[in-house]
Amino acid sequence: MTTKLRINGLLGSVPKLTGENYLDWKFAVQMVLHCAECWDVVSGKAKKPKKPEDLTAWEEKAENALKRQFYGTHSLGLKGRAFVDTVLSFADQLRAVDVELSDDDVIDVLIMGLAEEYSALAAALGAVTSDLMIKEVVGAIIDEEARIGKPLAGKEAALLAKENRGNRRTITCYGCQKEGHIQRDCPEKKEKASMALDDLAY
């Protein structure tokens, strides 16, 4: 079994981080990083070498550690905007060190790493046959986060409605950037979907 296959198998065994399983999660992540020979870099034990001949190996280990964090974001147990921000942050860090990372790679991590509550969205995004853009996926995740948020009931809802009556803000679509609707209700998105269906029909 190659090291890469063994590492991928270990990544799948890392539990999602919750408030109660931090020690188990930490141990599993450390084992994956040890197996990938990245733990010394991640933990700070291995300092950046001064000799140019040693620098290449060190940079490769640092790059591999960052890739593992990026592709393992799902195990952090983050949801919605926090998950999106973390994935995009890792993607930016990888690109900053000249790692080739396509938009499709980022989209795959965003979709495949969604929490269980977002499974319907993940299935819908996975079924899209046209090319998705990162901003569309991010907008869909944020819209879904708002949709599945817990609604207020009874007096709380009435008080909040009364309080916010004068504080109306303009809604802006994440897809087309126009005001007055959210991405889920975007007429341009619906038009693209309709055109895609027409293309499939022919």
From TrEMBL:
UniProt GO molecular function: nucleic acid binding; zinc ion binding
Xref: SUPFAM superfamilies: Retrovirus zinc finger-like domains
Keywords: Metal-binding, mRNA processing, Zinc, Zinc-finger
Coiled-coil stretches: none
SMART domains cross-referenced by the UniProt entry: ZnF_C2HC (SM00343)
Record-given protein name: CCHC-type domain-containing protein
All residue ranges annotated as the CCHC-type domain in the record: 173-188
GO biological process terms held by the UniProt record: mRNA processing
Pfam family for this entry, one: zf-CCHC
